Amino acid sequence: MPPTAPPRNRSLLAGFLSLLGEFLITVGLVLGLFVAYSLWWTNVLADRQASSRGDEIRRQWLSAPAAGAPAEPGALDTQGGAGFLHVPAMGGGEVLVKRGTSPEVLNHGVAGYYTEPVKSALPWEASGNFALAAHRDGHGAKFHDIHRIRRGDAIVFETRDTWYVYKVFAELRQTSKYNVDVISPVPKESGKTAPGRYITLTTCTPVYTSKYRYVVWGELVRTEKVDAKRTPPAELR
């Protein structure tokens, strides 16, 4: 007969395996809770914050004087929001847009426009690139469905007194996170070579990573003044 371990050794081995199993189960539960926190609970918290801030911005708009100079919406940015982004292809919900793209801004369930390394233009400026970033997963995940956007789709930016309607003309599904040319005033990788009024959406890719960037470009096709009922443009109806 083959040799066998003494009973005491077998008991120690069984105890060790039992402890190891319990440890691995605990680690699995902790990792599962962390994933749930990162991908679900941060979304809940960020959405609450963004919704509260969005409601506050709209109250400010209602209390502001009716239709003034184009620069007036920009003044609201110092109070926490420049306007609302609408992208029907991503599900139709509105996204509050604030100044900056740091985690301190984007982690609150909003999109932010770039101030560095390239300064974004704003929609009411005569030309330039209104370049935005938002999370794809966690913290509101406002650009989670960016991959659903196709050429010809509408992107609408809403300010207190104007709807800015853009049409998507190009996308770049993967590029280096260090590729700042995609947010240049004239984003040549999109195929454009002359100044215009562009919008750029950027986020991380692949999903659940931040290794690369996903980019969508649009060009302004028209503006509409906001009426008393804030009737949305046809692209949002």
Automatic annotation (TrEMBL):
The chain crosses the membrane at residues 12-41. One of its GO terms (molecular function) is hydrolase activity. CDD domains: Sortase_E. The keyword GTP-binding does not apply. InterPro entries: Sortase (IPR005754), Sortase_Class_E (IPR053465), Sortase_dom-sf (IPR023365), Sortase_E (IPR042003). The active site is at 135 (proton donor/acceptor), 204 (acyl-thioester intermediate). The keyword Hydrolase applies. Keywords: Hydrolase, Membrane, Transmembrane, Transmembrane helix. Pfam families: Sortase (PF04203). This is Class E sortase. It comes from Streptomyces globosus.
